[in-house]
Specification:
This is Isocitrate dehydrogenase kinase/phosphatase. By secondary structure, the protein is an alpha+beta fold. It has 20 helices and 20 strands. The chain starts with 10 loop residues before the first helix and ends with a helix.
Length: 594
Amino acid sequence: MFPQRLDSPHAYAIAKAMMDGFNRHYRLFRAESARAKHRFETADWHGQQRAQRERIEFYDLRVKECTMRLEKEFQAGAQPMDVWHQIKLHYIGLLVNHHQPELAETFFNSVTTKILHRTHFHNDFIFVRPAVSTEYIENEETARPTYWAYYPSRETLRETLTQLIHNFRLQREFADLPGDVAQVLAALQERLQQAQLRANFQIQVLSGLFFRNKGAYVVGKVINGFTELPFALPILHDEAGRLTIDAALFGEDDLQMLFAFARASFMVDMEIPSAYVQFLRSLMPRKPRAELYNALGLAKQGKTLFYRDFLYHLRHSTDQLRIAPGIKGMVMLVFDLPSFPYVFKLIKDYYPPPKETTREQVKGKYLLVKQHDRVGRMADTLEYSLVAFPRQRFSDELIAEIQKFAPSQIEISDRDGDGQQEVIIQHLYIERRLIPLNMHLQEALEAGARQQIEHSVIEYGNAIKDLVAANIFPGDMLWKNFGVTRDGKVVFYDYDEIEYLTDCHFRRVPQPRTEEEEMSGEIWYTVRPHDVFPETFAPFLLGNDAVREVFMQHHADLLGVEFWQSHKERILAGHVYDVFPYDTRRRFTHAAGA
């Protein structure tokens, strides 16, 4: 019932305490993001990685703090439901003129569901839909608007590009900024060619630099008449420790690769995140807003938007959830909705030999991936608890599969008392749907598509090498544990055996000492935990001659101990590898060398 009067003496105070909790969260989140600039300037790469991990935990810590305060000061959980209606209305009032209203709504949801112990989203006490618009929110920081606009002519383009870089006030010397700007200008003029510059010719650039791994990225667009050209300029440190613009990335595809779902989030100082998302969507209109919030480090908002999108899709579709195509996993049970581009994964209750793991260990592996730099090679996952689906959207075969392998994870009931049966999944991971690499390769082999085979095998090896550079050993390297994105990139998505590279022991298979050992069909030598024998990979991966030929030509080093051990030693010595979120052939240094 909608309250007729706001007459509770506690409702406003509780709403204000919740808003204070959110404001503290975003203040700390923004301060940590802003410090990324100093870490970049001082080449504090380990500090950048540490901050990336720690920032992920900020949200849950602030929700816990706020929940404890509300219980201690107001006994919030004991307040009657009509008071909670009033709390929500007061909170909406506090959102007026707020700069992050959508994030504050999500924070309210998180705290409220902790206190009221609600099992899923469908109730009147949270923001199932946004209550406050995020359009046209103005930034009060006059020195730092959401974006800067420049209006150059052809004659002043060089000067404008130089000023654009200077405006970020990086406290480190460029090796050759005029030379870098000349290369950016040449790349831009190649795009513009002889096009006439219209009256509205301008360059718009987001005022916050985007920091990730060892790079800083200028992100913006060139507008000319009815044409808009997205661009990004990666700024790196050269071997002498001076700054250099490494490449000029243009167009939606380049930006999609930079903001790919398989990459870690950026650190960027934003007063109005919704304005950043709106600007980025003008560069990448095909990218869901949920993924853009994730890319900006606002994963809880990404989860909120994803869930809203999913509920909307359910209302406008009729197909059934089914067991996902492909080889079934031993640890994860995977299902999908054919009309929806994601898969749903839940951990089974038991695993056949030789798998030796537990539910908590598997969850720990997924958390490791969440906190790590995914270098474009590990799919991001959204984690949910107590997710309710309409029963009629499940195939009977899928229900039977879950009840057989994960009975503790499913409940079928009418919790809302509305006469509609729901399937409630206790714990769930959701990932973008990819084409399993083994299926992709098999199709190519059957069709005799030599170019597709070569591309897939090369990409597979490159994916493993990128993971190694990020201190990740994938564990189970079978083709079925990798997927292919729509642009042909190979991504790893099976995390239950993942390990830090530096925790692994890379060994050669010992020489047999006797004829019995040599002829034995069983492993006769001692294998300790975390032992890895790279030369044993080949029989499992290279059974096809066409695949073997390409693999040995490009990635034979993966079958030797030396490759793995040398990378492990360098990482232990403190080295942080460069992993480029763009084609390295686009690098200016590469072009100069060529």
